[in-house]
Amino acid sequence: MRPQATERKGRDASRSVKIVVTGPFAAGKTSLIRTISEVAVLSTERDVTDADRVRKRQTTVAMDFGRITIDPELVLYLFGTPGQKRFDFMWQILAEGMLGFVVLVDAQRDDSIAEAADILAFFRDIAQVPYVVGLNKCAALTPADVETVRRRIGAPPSVRVVMCDARDRESVKGLLVELLLAVLDEVEATAAV
Ligand SMILES: Nc1nc2c(ncn2[C@@H]2O[C@H](COP(=O)(O)OP(=O)(O)OP(=O)(O)O)[C@@H](O)[C@H]2O)c(=O)[nH]1
Ligand SMILES: [Mg+2]
Questions:
Q1: Which CATH code for domain 14-187?
Q2: Where are the domains of the chain?
Q3: Going by CA atoms, what residue is nearest to atom 9 of ligand 1?
Q4: For 77-118, how does the pLDDT look when each residue is reduced to its tens digit (9 = 90+)?
Q5: In the structure, what pLDDT confidence band is assigned to residue 12 with cuts at 50, 70 and 90?
Q6: Are 172 and 38 in contact (CB under 8 A)?
Q7: Which ligand is nearest to the CA of 107?
Q8: Of 61, 71, 88, 151, which is least packed with CB atoms within 10 Å of its CB?
Q9: What lines the ligand 1 site, CB under 6 Å?
Q10: Which of 4, 17, 22 is nearest to 97 (CA)?
């Protein structure tokens, strides 16, 4: 799938791009988009009705949508996916036309890391676009743990794996900048061929 961008011509010419935030149930995807969005986030959260209810009362059932202006010429539209497997039909729909994606994981939980590996494999299969891995809830992680999580998720050494806090604006900004750098790396690599 080719990266897509729309360009508005004129005095305030700006480029808007689509970024997807995916990852397992309760990784912090909705929190991340709410933390960084400059507009009220459109969320589709409903009460959790299955066994996951002990972890969290509400879950995303379709998508989250937010927006962040990186500079006057670059606006990111952020789409958060549902985490629960029963809504995975939305993943492919939301991935359409994305420039890149973030895989967010609850780094405290083995099951979240295992699920993130499956989700990453799915997204890599449907879209050959740059991505970063965000390790949320990472207070107890050491640098060695980061490498262990990288291996378990199946991200190669060239992929940025970044500790983050989805509730902290600067941290989320840092993660998105890493994604944009990954996009630039790819542009440069393509130009060099
Ligand atoms: N400790 C900690 N808790 C967090 C962090 N980010 C989010 N949370 C909490 O973890 C839970 C994750 O919530 P969501 O943002 O709804 O997660 P989600 O990935 O959108 O979940 P689904 O849509 O259900 O897949 C919430 O209770 C948050 O308050 C973080 O960086 N650290
Ligand atoms: Mg959510």
A1: 3.40.50.300
A2: 14-187
A3: 28
A4: 999 999 999 999 999 999 999 999 999 999 999 999 999 999
A5: low
A6: no
A7: 1
A8: 71
A9: 23, 25-31, 56, 59-60, 82-83, 136-137, 165-167
A10: 4
